[in-house]
Amino acid sequence: MADDLIHDQSAGIERLLEIMRRLRDPETGCPWDIEQDFDSIAPYTIEEAYEVADAIARRDWPDLEGELGDLLLQAVYHAQMGAEDGHFTFQSVVTAICDKMVARHPHVFGDESREKSAEQQVSDWEAIKAAERAGRAQGGALDGVAVGLPALLRAYKLQKRAARVGFDWPDTGDVIAKIVEEAGELVEARDTLGPEEVAEEFGDLMFVMANLGRHLGVEPEAALRAANAKFTTRFAGVEAKLAAMGKTPEGSTLEEMDALWDAVKAEARGSA
């Protein structure tokens, strides 16, 4: 019967759950899968989430379908290990997220009015989340911001939390002034202090840059991903122009590559 389920392409999530159960079977499963635990699988989970975001950024919908499947597999993997250890099951995970979504959307699933602004709905959402944190004995404003988030994204979320309780600069100009201050401290550390102090001051500057993004309504992680993509595209353009000249980056001067960089930028702007 189990084999029938595994080969039944119409069986949906039950098929995937059975596949994972079989992979983790201590007697007949896959040796690699049996050896894994929450800690060893967590990096794959993060990687798959980024691959989903990458497929979306590229507007590659067939690839997105596959990447969403890979990400779903990660949830199933963790749920199977949770069931084996007696912590939770896939069904309890589903029940928990369903209950959370219903509780957090009383204007859809309850008797509250839907006639609210987007800002009011966000405010209500945060109030509900704050009550949930209080119920979990997470009393601090910064409690619950996951340590495992990418550092830039975590900085952004920490600052959003602090701003909700009034710990924030009143306007963007104050943030920019702080950036100038932190940049000066970084230069001073570079010139007079050691590598540990330089790293600390660099971190402070990055933290304030994330805060500037929040004040400007720019999510810094997404902005940096876009900048990375733009740099990759433009540098590939430089390499292509060099190749047309029979040259490589290694065999070129900085001045040559900088001139080609400007040409690639100009072409990109002209085609926009």
From TrEMBL:
| The reaction(s) this protein catalyses | ATP + H2O = AMP + diphosphate + H(+)
Any idea of its EC number? Answer: 3.6.1.8
| Entry GO MF terms | ATP diphosphatase activity
- Keyword Lipid biosynthesis recorded: no
NTP pyrophosphohydrolase MazG-like domain ranges (all copies): 36-109
Give the source's domain of life in one word.
Bacteria
Enzyme class, UniProt record, top EC level: hydrolase
Q: Which UniProt keywords apply?
A: Hydrolase
Which GO annotations describe the biological process of this protein?
dATP catabolic process; dGTP catabolic process; dTTP catabolic process; dUTP catabolic process; response to stress; TTP catabolic process; UTP catabolic process
Q: Which InterPro entries match?
A: MazG-like_dom, NTP-PPase_MazG-like_C, NTP-PPase_MazG-like_N, NTP_PyrPHydrolase_MazG, PRib-ATP_PPHydrolase-like
Give the SUPFAM superfamilies listed for this entry.
all-alpha NTP pyrophosphatases (SSF101386)
Q: Which family does this protein fall into?
A: Belongs to the nucleoside triphosphate pyrophosphohydrolase family.
Protein name according to UniProt: Nucleoside triphosphate pyrophosphohydrolase
Write down the species.
Sulfitobacter albidus
Q: Which gene encodes it?
A: mazG
